[in-house]
Specification:
The chain is an alpha+beta fold and about 220 residues long. It has two domains: about 40 residues, no CATH class; about 170 residues, Glutaredoxin, CATH 3.40.30.10. About 45% of the residues lie in helices and about 20% in strands. The chain contains seven helices and ten strands. It has a six-stranded mixed beta sheet, sandwiched between helices. A two-stranded antiparallel sheet has the order 2-3. Strand 7 and strand 8 form a beta hairpin. The protein is globular.
Length: about 220
């Protein structure tokens, strides 16, 4: 009896220790949760891939994200998608409306296609028009080079799996990039208001820091 009890205790302690290590002090329980925690703790620089789209000539992604300073809310999609991308498009339409209601030049939207072979600038332009996207707020790009596209998806942890119908299964999230082109937070699609509030706060913080740095430079 005592031996059985002791063995049970040891098994419980072993299970607790394993769970503690696997979930990083019980902060996460899934691979996606681990990815989001890792990004929050260690911001991830966007890889230097070339993107292009309507009004965006071939451009380095980090340069595009840091252009003019500010914070970028981004998502990944493809124009032929009839499932989760519709929800992403609707979410970004709401984000665009919110940014128009309370203008904030420090926050902008970017949709990145992972179907670069199909979603050329003309296809992206038509898609943007269908969503009534304001190019001053919301831009659309693709990564024309397939190898660079794979690098981008892998680096940012975006899962894209081709199915047998010529479409894709993929995860959906709202990605926040700071003024230095670093991925700093990842939010669920249902957390769009939280993502927007965080982006606005980060933009104000960055602007304040830049102003303070400029003031110190004149002393």
């Amino acid at each position: 009896m005592l031996r059985t009890a002791l063995l049970s205790v040891l098994l419980l302690l072993g299970g607790y220790a394993s769970a503690h290590w696997l979930t990083r002090d019980f902060q996460v329980w899934t691979d996606e949760g681990a990815r989001r925690l890792e990004v929050a703790l260690h911001p991830l620089p966007a890889p230097a891939v070339v993107v292009q789209g309507p009004g965006v000539a071939a451009h380095d992604l980090p340069a595009l994200l840091s252009e003019g300073g500010g914070v970028t809310l981004a998502d990944f999609f493809y124009t032929r998608c009839q499932t989760v991308c519709l929800s992403l498009g609707s979410s970004f339409q709401q984000l665009q409306a919110a940014l128009r209601d309370r203008p904030n030049p420090g926050v902008r939207l970017l949709s990145i296609s992972f179907d670069g072979a199909h979603d050329d600038p003309a296809a992206l332009r038509a898609y943007a028009r269908s969503l009534r996207a304001d190019p001053s707020v919301w831009r659309f790009v693709r990564v024309p080079d397939e190898q660079q596209q794979e690098t981008l998806l892998r680096r940012l942890g975006v899962v894209v799996v081709p199915d047998d119908r010529g479409d894709y299964e993929h995860n959906a999230a709202l990605l926040v990039f700071d003024a230095h082109a670093r991925l700093v937070r990842i939010f669920d699609l249902a957390e769009q208001q939280l993502a927007l509030d965080y982006a606005r706060h980060l933009a104000r913080t960055d602007a304040h820091a830049d102003t303070h740095a400029g003031t110190m430079g004149t002393l």
